């Protein structure tokens, strides 16, 4: 059930999150912006402070290539 005004803490195994701590809005939604790191497999976790509720997503990031096709 969506709950407004609760703290959600985001964490990532690599990269950056902004913001990392977010209060849910009036519809119980919280979001952040993630910039991936350099590792090919990364995890992002959202946890509701003071409860056991959390979700983790595994993300596989493809390496960037230059315009010549080399990494």
Structure description:
By secondary structure, the protein is mainly β. 0% of the residues lie in helices and 42% in strands. The chain is built from no helices and 6 strands. The strands form 2 sheets. It has a 4-stranded antiparallel β-sheet with strand order 3-1-5-6, with no helix packed on it. A two-stranded antiparallel sheet has the order 2-4. A hairpin with a 5-residue loop joins strand 5 and strand 6. The protein is elongated, with a radius of gyration of 15 Å. The mean pLDDT is 90.
Write the layout of secondary structure elements.
Blueprint: E1 7-12, E2 16-18, E3 21-23, E4 33-35, E5 41-48, E6 54-60
Antiparallel strand pairs: 1-3, 1-5, 2-4, 5-6
Assembly state (oligomeric): single chain
**Rg, alpha carbons:** 15 Å
Structural class: mainly beta
- Mean pLDDT across residues: 90
Give the uncertain stretches in residue-range form: none
Largest beta sheet, briefly? 4 strands, antiparallel
Q: Please count the beta strands (DSSP E, at least 2 residues each).
A: 6
Distance between the termini: 45 Å
Spatial arrangement of strands, main beta sheet:
3-1-5-6
Helical residue percent?
A: under 10%
Share in β-strands: 35-45%
Helical run tally = 0
Shape: elongated
Q: What's the helix-strand series?
A: EEEEEE
Offer a few descriptive terms.
71 residues; mainly beta; four-stranded antiparallel β-sheet; 6 strands; 0% helix
Briefly characterize the structure.
This protein has 71 residues and is mainly β. The chain has strands at residues 7-12, 16-18, 21-23, 33-35, 41-48, 54-60. The strands form 2 sheets. It has a 4-stranded antiparallel sheet, with no helix packed on it.
